[in-house]
Amino acid sequence: MTTPRLADVIAALEAAYPPALAQSWDAVGLVCGDPDDPVERVLVAVDPVTETVEEAIETGAGLLVTHHPLLLRGVHGVGADTPKGALVHRLVRAGTALFTAHTNADAADPGVSDALAAAIGLAIEGPLQPVPGPPVDKIVAFVPTGPALTAVHEALSAAGAGHLGNYSHCSFATAGTGQFLPHEGATPAIGQVGRLERVAETRLEMVLPRARRAEVVAALRASHPYEEPAFDVFELAERPSAQGLGRVGALPEPEPLSAFARRVAAALPATAWGVRAAGDPDREIRRVAVCGGAGDSALDAAIAAGVDVYVTADLRHHPASEHLLAGSLPGRPTPALVDVAHWASEWPWCEQAAGVVRAALGGSVEVRVSALRTDPWTIGKP
């Protein structure tokens, strides 16, 4: 069995967690390591800290995959006399690569919040804050009926038009009549200068990624028999996707908030932070919004989703207090809140990421999930 290269593992991870989904301020991807190096073992963890780096090295992992970046903000050096620089040097000397999937894993489908929702036992409905799919155009071309139509259709397909999911050459065609009058200087493929022509034509419609617009238009001009082909390009409206921040789901059966808080605590690894709930303990919970990591910025989205409870991490006092105050007004119900430790909310993703590598590379690489608790809080008192 051929040992995969680091580049093979990265390709699998970036297919599952596309770098384009990362926020502009984020730092994702390969931090250190040679893409041509062989990788026999992979360790997945939430944090790139001393403990997980040492675990990766001690277990012979050629790659440490983490959710949180080591070098999130710009640096001018990674000297070994700095805490983060020391980790980089430790990894490089040991021949262990470091790869990060952060906000791109948050927004992916499935991603961090899918893993959290699954751990709690939710049937997922969709993202809490969906992001639109890639921008799409539609090209409408008018082509003489016959062999020319086949040639144009093939050329547009080869240039990137007409691809929908696992299908290619997708199009819609309607018959009609084209009309034109060639003037002096024209070299018409059909008809003569000075004579009005009417030709049996087909209206050919195909969608295409907006990023491929120039290539598709060039293919149309190159393959169309007319020296001046008639065509339109329309920018289509944004289309919702299954990608985005957070997830909305439902419990199999309703249960009171107090029981739901116990459910969340049982589903996640124990931390000093624990699990806290805000709201009436007897409130019935059925529909749930979750957001792995710090999610108070999505409070308004949780309200708009009409859920009974919102589960996330790092909820601050004032946003939570104001949220509950708003919910006390008649006719303005707001979801109850469940606050968990940041690390605990994202730890279920580790097994998801490990599964991505296993599915792509099979038994050619050994993948483990770190069980070390790297939550920074170590003491909790009631």
UniProtKB/TrEMBL annotation:
Pfam families, per the entry: DUF34_NIF3
UniProt keyword terms in alphabetical order: Hydrolase, Metal-binding
Signal peptide segment: none
Transmembrane segments: none
GO cellular component: cytoplasm
InterPro entries: DUF34/NIF3, DUF34/NIF3_bac, DUF34/NIF3_sf, N-reg_PII/ATP_PRibTrfase_C
Highest rank taxon of the organism: Bacteria
Sequence positions that bind a divalent metal cation: 67-68, 106, 342, 346
GO molecular function: hydrolase activity; metal ion binding
Description of how the protein assembles with itself and partners: Homohexamer.
Family that this chain belongs to: Belongs to the GTP cyclohydrolase I type 2/NIF3 family.
Cross-referenced PANTHER family: GTP CYCLOHYDROLASE 1 TYPE 2 HOMOLOG, NGG1 INTERACTING FACTOR 3
Protein name in UniProt: GTP cyclohydrolase 1 type 2 homolog
Lineage: Bacteria, Bacillati, Actinomycetota, Actinomycetes, Pseudonocardiales
